[in-house]
Amino acid sequence: MCGLSLASTSRKPLWGIAIFQIGIASAFMLLFRFPKWMMAAFAGMILAGTLVSSLLKPQMPSAPRGPQPVPIRPVLFRFVIVGIFICGVGCLCFGLFGFVAFMNSWNDWHRYQGQPYHVTTFQVTHVYFQKLMKGGRDFYASGTVDGQREWMSLEPYLRSRPRDLAEVEERVPVGTSIPIYLFPELKGRSRVRVYADTPPADAYHRAAMNAVNYGLTGLAICGALLFLLSRVRQMCFADAPMQFSQSAVR
User: Fold this and answer.
1) Of 49, 50, 48, 28, which Cα lies nearest the Cα of 39?
2) What backbone torsions phi and psi does residue 185 show, to the nearest 5 degrees?
3) What is the DSSP letter of 42?
4) Quick one: pLDDT at residue 245?
């Protein structure tokens, strides 16, 4: 809030900001197929924080006393306000998205950590394509690994989402041999992971640490910019009392 006139506004903008935050969080979670209970939890936390802020916000008098502080650098003041808003959204995004990325990689890391595995090949016998709710797509394959039938997700192998089943069949024809890591003690598609130079446990651990580092770095940069912008904002009002006193003497 910048200036007394903005501080005396109604509480409605607080709920507008809350709706904006819920919209960003929900879009991100829908894109990465998060469970609905987690979406509801984030929305509840945002609404609870907004409610507490609105209740604790002091009531401003209807008729303010004395002269109102007016920015003497209006152009700079507008740029500062826009910068503060952008940095605030950046803090929200780095905090929320960094936390979600970290938790996903952290859970996958613990799923594969210490599990025995060996390198082998997945022989494709059939591919599948399903359209999920809200525009999602799932594409996977069945095949044989060491003489046994297994299932695997094709997303890490293709690295881009096909549009339909025909495209999947074209890119992964029957008989394709895919090098994989096989985790015999796991279940479902988690048993089969596409081969890479780094084993899955190490790769997920690295991804979790990168999410922490990038998230904290982004938060630190946005926080430093917010501090600098707040100092610049004060400069916009630095000479205002002197102007009022000079006008009063005249």
Assistant:
1) 28
2) -90, -5
3) H
4) 44
Burial code (b: 16+ CB inside 10 Å, e: under 16) for 164-182 equals eeeebeeebeeebebebbb
- Any idea what the Cα angle at residue 189 is, between residues 204 and 35, rounded to 5°? 70
The answer to whether residue 248 scores a pLDDT higher than 70 is no
What span, in angstroms and rounded, lies between the C-alpha atoms of 179 and 199? 13
In this prediction the pTM is 0.64
Domain count, the chain: 2
Same domain, 19 and 131: no
Give residue-wise pLDDT tens across range 139-162.
899 999 988 999 999 988 888 888
3-state secondary structure 101-119: HHHHHHHHHHHHCCCCCEE
The answer on 100 and 21 residing in a single domain is yes
Nearest to 17 by CA among 79, 100, 78, 85: 85
Domain CATH for 157: 2.40.50
Strands lying side by side in the sheet with 118-131: 148-153, 137-145, 118-131, 177-182, 192-194
Residue that has been written with the tokens 């994989």 in this structure: 180
